[in-house]
């Protein structure tokens, strides 16, 4: 009677901002009647009662409210069967189950009594408990898989960041290596040209016999090859024009008594410094210069540099 009076007071004075806590609602009377009363009370609170109602119960009927009314949700305290103690961890969405018979078995109650209790409790109730156990296991595994997924997600983001950084470093290293290689090729070619120019100059100023002329010819051919290789090395790292100017030919001594003859466009001339024939592309009489095509090379030469 006192409990019913208290419930009446709660129903009368609760507002949409109230929090109602009910412990073992519907207990202390006939289980079936208490369960029915508890279900009716909870449905009344859910329809037009307080903001939140939390009720504890051992009535299996109250656990089914969730499946008929979306305003309800189940939760239970996890129970460690080996230690026979609660873990004080809330399992959200899982209804609690009874452990009375299991605890009695652990406490040494005779099997005959336990078997009779299970028979009286009923196969259906035992199956419900098994379903609840499976739900608890599923809930536990579900949370474990979520934690693993979050771990792998964080790990994949870190690996992606490391991969992007490594790719950037590799590209930067490749650019630096290409630049260093180009610089080395240019320096080596420049040094070789300088040595060959000096060697040619020395040979030209020496005795004018056929052996020295042969050495001069070989040196000039080697110098031309070095120039072409140096230009090819530089073209690998840039798209600059490959038009060359034959500045090295201007260093060759020209006989004072040689008079330049002016060729015409389309004429074939000989470039002694290259020991090659070339086709005249353009003539500039005022500058005493011509532009010729010698193989793959386009050269600008003085008139006195060709015959």
From TrEMBL:
Residues 174-264 are annotated as: Disordered. Residues 18-34 form the DNA mismatch repair proteins mutS family domain. It comes from the Eukaryota. Residues 179-191, 235-252 have a biased composition (Polar residues). Keywords: ATP-binding, DNA-binding, Nucleotide-binding. Gene3D superfamilies: P-loop containing nucleotide triphosphate hydrolases (3.40.50.300). This is Uncharacterized protein isoform X1. It comes from Coffea arabica (Arabian coffee).
């Amino acid at each position: 009677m006192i409990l019913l009076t208290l419930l009446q007071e709660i129903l009368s004075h609760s507002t949409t901002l109230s929090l109602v806590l009910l412990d073992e609602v519907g207990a202390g009377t006939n289980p079936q009647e208490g369960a029915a009363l508890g279900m009716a009370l909870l449905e009344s609170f859910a329809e037009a009662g307080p903001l939140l109602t939390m009720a504890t119960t051992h009535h299996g009927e109250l656990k089914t409210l969730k499946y008929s009314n979306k305003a309800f949700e189940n939760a239970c305290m996890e129970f460690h069967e080996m230690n026979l103690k609660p873990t004080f961890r809330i399992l959200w969405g899982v209804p609690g189950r009874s452990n009375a018979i299991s605890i009695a078995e652990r406490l040494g109650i005779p099997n005959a009594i336990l078997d009779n209790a299970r028979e009286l409790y009923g196969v259906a109730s035992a199956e419900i408990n098994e379903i609840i156990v499976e739900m608890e296991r599923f809930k536990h595994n579900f949370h474990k898989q979520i934690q693993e997924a979050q771990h792998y997600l964080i790990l994949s983001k870190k690996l992606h960041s490391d991969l992007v950084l490594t790719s950037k470093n590799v590209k930067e290293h490749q650019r630096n290596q290409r630049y260093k290689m180009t610089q080395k090729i240019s320096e080596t070619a420049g040094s070789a040209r300088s040595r060959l120019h000096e060697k040619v100059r020395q040979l030209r100023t020496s005795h004018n016999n056929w052996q020295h002329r042969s050495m001069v010819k070989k040196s000039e051919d080697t110098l031309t090859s070095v120039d072409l290789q140096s230009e090819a090395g530089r073209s690998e790292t840039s798209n600059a024009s490959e038009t060359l100017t034959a500045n090295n030919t201007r260093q060759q001594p020209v006989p004072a008594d040689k008079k330049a003859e002016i060729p015409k466009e389309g004429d074939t001339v000989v470039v002694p410094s290259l020991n090659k024939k070339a086709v005249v592309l353009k003539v500039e009489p005022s500058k005493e210069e011509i532009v010729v095509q010698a193989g793959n090379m386009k050269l600008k030469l003085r008139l006195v540099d060709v015959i």
